[in-house]
Amino acid sequence: MADALKYLEAEIKDLKDQSLYSWPRTLDGANKAICVYDNKEVINLSANNYLGLCDHPKIVERALEYTKKYGAGPGAVRTIAGSMKIHLDLEEKIADFKHCEACLLFQSGYTANAGTSAAILDKQSIVFSDQLNHASIIDGIRISGTAKGIYKHSDMDHLKQLLEENRDKEYNRRLLVTDGVFSMDGDIAKLPELVELAREYDCIMMIDDAHSSGVLGSHGRGTVDHYNLHGQVDIQVGTLSKAIGALGGYVVGTRALIDWLMNRGRPILFSTSLPPAVVGAVDAAFDLLKEDDSLVKQLWQNREYWVKGLQEAGFDVGQSATPIVPIIAGENEKAVTLSRRLFEEGLFAQSIVFPTVPRGTARVRTIVTAKHTPDILDRALEIFTKVGKELEIIS
Ligand SMILES: Cc1ncc(COP(=O)(O)O)c(C=O)c1O
To answer: Which CATH number applies to 58-291?
Structure first.
């Protein structure tokens, strides 16, 4: 039995030889701006906890309250055991917040993306997808068996060319899908142009707002709100695991879309929904976002402070336009060394290397949150400057 998996040892060695092997660090305690990883207190610039909601007292309190009232788990898949009322109430709250007709909760942003594109597309369809879209979108596309037109990142001319080439072909559906904020570069999708093209070429328009929910738009309503394109995007996906601070995903759109996903979304049909603790946490997070946009404002203030400091020190932050701020180091080895040295000096920021990003653009990705005070960011900048000079990334 053990021998059947022996080949994995060679595969793992291969990963190690190529510097592609990784094992996550261990976080001791809640996710915060400063926390303990691998027994060392460090500045944490690695998490998507944009608003610092992971351990917000009101959110933790409602998670506990819901657990006490409704138990630890929902019992079974919704289509078998029924929806809990708390799921339906939360869906109504999110739909209202996003100014959409209806909402469906998923177990994660991953299942929301993969389950939705797989439910919308089939072998007679075609999808037009940004080259840098998230893996969960790509996996949904693969499952559906649809034809594909992958356009160069945010390149509207290339997209138009692909749309034109496929204009007269007989597809039953055309889907145009993009991330709202791209997770490796922190740039924002050109949604107004995408919406125009979707309209011109009769495509369903879908956006993955994983890194935009709670970040972009008024009170963090997302990319559609940021560009004031309400009613013009057919499918909006969001995650509840990043700025919302808990876990899960959701889709908002028309009632017909949600009805279809309840009937044909495989993660809904074959996997149990979110536990009450998570529903409570998310419910409190949306109340907080709706009532008060001070955390979103603080997030953006901190982001501007951080980028200005890095640029003044001479770092290349690529295309970043959001709290995701990459520091481009060049080759894989350099980014890995940068991340390791930063950690030794008291700062945790993950290195991202080829093949996740193109060769020669390996980077350390920093993510600023509403909880990174100027003092913390000044200290982070000192560390970056010291290590950046040492590795000759800046002079
Ligand atoms: C762009 C993007 N979409 C979707 C997801 C999936 O979200 P979740 O972690 O909630 O499954 C992620 C998470 O890494 C992401 O970065």
So the answer is: 3.40.640.10
